Amino acid sequence: MRHVNYSLTPAKLNAAKPKNSTYKLADGGGLFVRVSTAGTRTWCYAYTFGTKRREVTFGQYPEIGVKEARDRHLAARTKLANGDDPAAAKKEEKEAQRRAAEASEGVFRRFSEVFLVEQLGDASEGYRERLRARLDLHVWPHIGTKQLTDVKPRDVLEIMERLRKTPVTAEKVRALIAQIFDHAIRKLRVETNPAHAMRGVVKVPASTHHRHLSEPELGTFWRALAKHDDSATYPSTVACARIIALTMCRKCEAVAAKWTEFDLDEGTWTIPGERMKMRKPHRVFLPSQAVTILLKQKELTGGGEYVFATFAHRKTPPNVSTVTNFFDRLEGVPGNFTPHGLRGTAATILREHGFRRDVVELLLAHGERGVASAYHHHELAEERREALQHYADLVDSLAAGADVIGLKRRRAA
Question: Of the residues 163, 166, 327, 385, which has the maximum number of CB atoms within 10 A of its CB?
């Protein structure tokens, strides 16, 4: 193959300016740069294949530099010398890459990653990570490398049979696979959903509600917390448990609380939407007892970011399981009582004490559904503040063993 004496240099290419019409800068051996009226500089190779003049492009300068363009030029000349059309070879290469990419996107694991981004992009990071972990543990090892079109109901059945001893997990896994395939149908990747037929193949026991405390049990619970004030338990853990009880928030919302979310002068805590189940910011109107707890906690962790950080991990929030395990050690508290049960406890007692359902639902940060969600934007701030203060006063009275009958029915139902 004849040697080519190339002539273009980066300096010449950089100096090439657009003109009123497209023009060429020859490099040698049929290689040239086409300069458009917009100033775009494209590497091209003009050659003859058979009796026809052909042209193939190698990309734009400066993304494709001088050396790389000449390497591609040499490869194309070699193809031509071997009787192959460089333009046709490039077209075939692109088509092969397209087919490979399409096949890759059709693999279950690859598509499930797409599903997590496209369908759950606005979900919390924790929720997406739980679903990813579920796929990684129970699904990808078995059908992750299969094409979507090759996954059959029997594959889903085999996954569920492995999880038969944990039926709740089995159904969650099946439902997740079903969601992924529903998305694949919408994207025209498949026409049927193999997970739908497996619904009910593993019977899920009826769900049970979180145990809540009666008023006497709530007094016992509060006294049990006090016994840990001078124990080996981290003060942050005890304080976190108290705040969960007095604010009706979820434990995951409390453990990750940051000092920037609180206005202790105003007695408010604004939880950002990304940490809320309904994905909307939630304002808590703190009772005076909660403010006192937080002021004391600020002496311990106020120099950091997280309210309930421990001494060992000052720069990170505590683990949710730390609070849950703490509840298991509380003396006199029912063994099946969890932090989430404090929400039901407060909601039940406040309703019994005459506070309106709308107020309690807002305290729980439950969202409106249906048409009502488009119209109801009230906050009922004063009633919510009064309700939480009433509840905190009641907790103090119950913990002291006082007769609290006089506290009831403060508001009309």
Answer: 327
